[in-house]
Amino acid sequence: MEITNVMEYEKIAKEKLPKLVYDYYASGAEDQWTLQENRNAFSRILFRPRILKDVSEIDVSTRVLGFNISMPIMVAPTAMQKMAHPDGELATARATSAAGTIMTLSTCATCSVDEVASTGPGIRFFQLYVYKDRNVVRQLAKRAEEAGFKAIALTVDTPRFGRREADIKNRFALPRDLTLKNFEGLDLGEIDKTNDSWLASYAASQVDQSLSWKDIKWLQSITSLPILLKGVLTAEDARIAVEYGAEGIIVSNHGARQLDYVPPTIMALEEVVKAVQGRIPVFLDGGVRRGTDIFKALALGASGVFVGRPTLFSLAADGEAGVRKMLQMLRDELELTMALSGCSSLREISRNHIKTDWDFPHYLPAKL
Length: 368
Known about the structure:
Radius of gyration: 20 Å
Binding site for glyoxylate: 24, 129, 164, 254, 257
GO cellular component, one term: peroxisome
CATH class: Alpha Beta
Distance between the termini: 28 Å
Order of helices and strands: HHHEEEEHEHEHEHHHEHEHEHEHE
Largest sheet: 8 strands, parallel
Structural class: alpha/beta
Strand content: 5-15%
GO molecular function, one term: (S)-2-hydroxy-acid oxidase activity
EC number: 1.1.3.15
Organism: Brassica cretica (Mustard)
CATH superfamily: Aldolase class I
Shape: globular
């Protein structure tokens, strides 16, 4: 079957993957209202295209934290990618590098930072959870830095894991033939290693619920890498993030897997952008499936977007080739949207190119 859009990869992945794995990737927290709204909210933003502009050449290249990348589309951290495909994060790393953009590796990956680095050159970030044993955090950050990773994306919305009812019903556990590779060889102290999924249990149970703003300073003291905060949804927290020296913000609701009934990320984006006043870049994570979605995020002030589930589903469908095609389709759709909106470069995209139903509540029907 000819794949014509990113959404089609999810259908293929659902057919190929065991139910337990598909549900782990696809589901959200509790009622999954935010999961649905992460997508639906994009349909409540309409375009105001400009005509008779020279769009014979379209440039989608940009810079993120000083690094030149081919497009404002990056790969978000997603856990345990070998459940989707035997090559797991290695395939994703190769595909992302070939696309000339950034991959973010999850702490809970099934390939280590060193294994990902061994796939060849590329700009890579490392997503980090802060654990109760700060020596473990120190070791994880040091490994990432030594492996050539360029930034840390610190997840800040997870003092406890959200209630994901599909995983409860399925009694989800990491398959026995897989392990969380970033923890191998670390000094984890005295822990019970008697069950097959002890590493996964450790990672879930040891997240530090006392994590607070002062710990941002501590993290800055143990690594020279720039730190982005992933999971900011409000202006108040965005302003504090700037005060504490964060070098970027990723507006994210953790794929709607944490607190249900938080706003979809595209609705929270502009509030955060206005709060930081251009002092640090703001990125969007959540719900992106089309080039039109990316344009809308850029028009609302994002410096780029991260894609998570599209990576997992395209990986499950066709390995490295699937991820490559997924990224290329999003790029092609973004270029088309820019041309039809009268923009030849990213810097020409502005708030004037869109209107939202929160600008004009009467303008759009309740449901499209």
